Predict the 3D structure of the following.
Amino acid sequence: MTDDPRSPKEIAGSHSTVVKPSSLDAKAILIPPQAIKGTHDILPGEVEKWQAFESLARTTFELYGFRELRAPVFEPTELFEKGTGATSDVVTKEMYTFTDKGGRSLTLRPEYTPSVVRAIIEHRLDLEGAPMRYYYMGPMFRYDKPQKGRYRQFHQIDIEVFGEKDAAVDAEIIEMAHALLGKLGVTGTETLVNSVGCRACRPAYSAALREAAGKRRAELCPDCQRKAGTNPLRIFDCKVEACREIARTFPLITDFLCEECREHFARLRTYLDALGVAYRVDPRLVRGLDYYTKTTFEIVTSHLGAQNAVLGGGRYDDMMKDFGGPDVCGTGFAMGMERVLSVAAIAPAPKKTLYLAYLGDEAKRAGLELARFLRGSGVECLVEYKDRGMKAHFGRANKLQAAWVLIVGENEIKAGRFGLKDMASGRQIDGTREELLALLRKD
Ligand code: AMP
């Protein structure tokens, strides 16, 4: 807390020039610290929505047999180069990579999937026989241009299922995503699905794309000209309108799928129908990461601007094997928490706080003990230590929108009975601490 009556902006503005220290006196540098561009604080008042979101996600996922797994925030850089894909935008442009004091190249995770695949291989979770259904939540880091809905530190809730080849599980997780979005009050969504084929059928498609891109090469942006040679599928991710226009003329993956991928995709659609999930097939939905095989999907909402995807995912049947692990397939999705919260309609119930109004030192001690007793039974109590008269205590309790005020003075201590005022109704009763607790619990 500060006694400075000015707002943080005013304080920052008043120190807009650096005063160079003439000696080693560090006090001469007056610029207050600020959060890094593209990152943000989640403050009380806002954080309750995050907590409600996380708690709804946990209970929803656990209903489908998912369990939480927590992996480190940083990993060896090569994990993402190999997993996320050396030609993806995330790896080529957006990673927060640094060398640690031991000379290792480390990266703040830009996504979760490679970490989980590593954890499964490292702990041989595939041998345990338990369903490999995991969920995770936490910050991700991408050096992208900050704008509304796009941050450098953002938060994702991810889920993955391993060892299930069946298209039914892809449909099940899409339905689970809808179940969660429904509980969050997210409306106006559309589900886009596609199949991006596999290692058997994608080479022919890539060759056809390379040929088509080659013919229009001169009209593509420099980035897409490079992609046309390395990984032409990535041209579909480009945000330059001219490139998007050209990409619309390219061949479609759906015309190149092998029998197995075609059948998998057909079955995905029948399971989605069975689960009552409405969807649209978007044959250009390739998603930004290199590892997808067969199913890809995205849920977009009409309530967001350019960054309209609230979640995206798909199947990645080769990643585990490519890491030198067992041949175990995977499928999953990642949900952007900031984006979901910006369109969610969750209103967490306001907290019910009891404010302790004590008068004098003896009452302070007795009040502290009373607060300990009540908290032990789940009543939220706030004690502040500024000396206040009874009127000031009530003023403060009002300002804090406390639900109750507990009055502790000399007389109350002598009688062993304390006053409890219900701030909404104005009704005040007195009772022993046990009687008051019974009343508070009922409320
Ligand atoms: P991705 O990991 O790229 O498949 O993204 C999955 C989801 O994470 C997206 O649908 C967004 O909701 C969210 N997301 C991805 N990048 C960002 C970002 N830079 N800022 C905020 N949300 C993001």
In short: Residues 111, 142, 144, 149-151, 154, 156, 288, 309-312, 334, 336, 338-339 surround adenosine monophosphate (CB under 6 Å).
